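Take a look at the protein record below and tell me what you see:
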Amino acid sequence: MTKVEALKKDNLFETNEVSSKELFGIKTDIKVPQFVNKNEYCPLVDENYVFDDETTLAILLGLKFNKRVFLQGLHGTGKSSHIEQVCARLNWPCIRINLDSHVSRIDLIGKDSIVLKDNKQVTEFQEGILPWAFQNNVALVFDEYDAGRPDVMFVIQRVLETDGKLTLLDQSKVLSPHPYFRIFATANTVGLGDTSGIYHGTNQINQGQMDRWNIIAKLNYLEQEQEIEIVSKKINSNSEEKKLIKSMVQMANLSRKGFEQKDVSIVMSPRTIIMWAENYKILNDIKKSLSLTFLNKCDESEIDIYKEYFQRAFGLDI
């Protein structure tokens, strides 16, 4: 009897096999495990979420076959939310950790702390997020993976192996992973450092570590119709608002082409368009909402270029 079978027999967790095509609306139909019960660590379901076929498939392969999945893509494309929404529909607990430069080895592993027991101060080991997640049916997501400190990255490296164990030196313990523990990472770069000049603070990743990621998926800007659908659903738009959203996406695409040609230094991400659409619904003013959402953070020398993009997309001067 395998460990998974033993745990099922003891009713410590229970899953059903569900159709990925029916649940996520993607083209590929593989059967994936869905937990019967959910707990407080399960993300909330966004009923209007639109799933990208390739990205969703990569995440599902990671969950079903215990693959380590690395999602790379430009900012605002929804890498982390994609993982969360897949987990939400599968009732799979999901924890996100932002690997900024302040996250240390101690934060991940744990440390000795002084606690009060029977009115006496005693030293007790307080488990970090990594050992806890490692021993539970949790999908652990490391956001901004390429911004992690070297000492933290080496802690993660061992658990990237499918049968990798976690050694707690301070406790003289070696932990085995839960059968449904999964690990994901998201990053703006693919471990080679920032070549665009817009992701300051990112690092090159040890290629021995990158080699441990089983699946690398890219989530960049979507097709125009997909992006319009995502923004429209996000703000529950009416027919008139959807026309404006189409022009917003057209302007965003112009900014992306301009960035590629080095005409501008800031691109309009899908997140920016959603915020612009949300602000428009509040203000009912397309120009003012653009200024408050985007133009006010742009370089003064580039404002006229963005205004030209606006005129071309909307047929209006700003």
Summary: DSSP finds 13 helices and eleven strands in the chain. Residues 6-11 have pLDDT under 50 and may be disordered. The longest strand covers residues 110-117. Residues 239-260 form the longest helix (22 residues).
